[in-house]
Design goal:
Nucleoside Triphosphate Pyrophosphohydrolase; five-stranded mixed β-sheet; alpha/beta; globular
């Protein structure tokens, strides 16, 4: 069924599940929203699709969620950040993301810049701050424009969103 839905071959679909065993659990996508003094948001260009996203990725085992967020920002953007607080926990099935084979929960932390540095990972090719009304093409599997605007509202209000 997945080969038909994805218009691909069975070997490609089998690769998706190669390392998956046991009970199916949601994957945790950890992101970090970093805003500068002008209210612009930090985005990185994903090499996999050439589009922009908040720095982040799958949560690594043995590292806390906040530590994951710090690590992802450092690797993907070159910036070192401190985590201020959790902004949102979103079930991607409840948002307008493209369909995924996996059930994904997105956790987004608010970070503040401590220092700048060089990108050290291979997953991103560029980094920049953007006005919220001038976002370039986003990597929709990772973040949506309305989510970035919502994160800005959450950081200003002090609220946390769970859905």
């Amino acid at each position: 069924m997945l080969t038909d839905l994805a218009s691909t071959d069975s070997a490609t679909v089998a690769e998706l599940f190669l390392f998956e065993s046991g009970y199916a659990n949601p994957k945790l996508d950890v992101r970090c929203a970093v805003f500068n003094d002008a209210g612009q948001v930090l985005l990185v260009r994903e090499t996999i699709d050439g589009n922009w996203s908040l720095p982040g990725g799958w949560a690594d085992v043995g590292v806390s969620l906040a530590e994951n967020a710090v690590k992802e920002v450092r690797e993907e953007s070159g910036y070192t950040v401190d985590i201020v607080r959790l902004l949102a926990v979103w079930d991607l099935n409840k948002h307008g993301h493209p369909p995924s084979v996996f059930h994904i929960w997105k956790l987004v932390f608010l970070g503040t810049i401590v220092s700048a540095g060089e990108m050290i990972g291979a997953e991103t090719s560029d980094v920049a701050f953007f006005d919220l009304d001038a976002l370039l093409t986003l990597s929709r599997g990772r973040i949506l424009p309305e989510q970035i605007r919502r994160l800005d509202a959450l950081r200003r209000s002090g609220e946390i969103e769970f859905d």
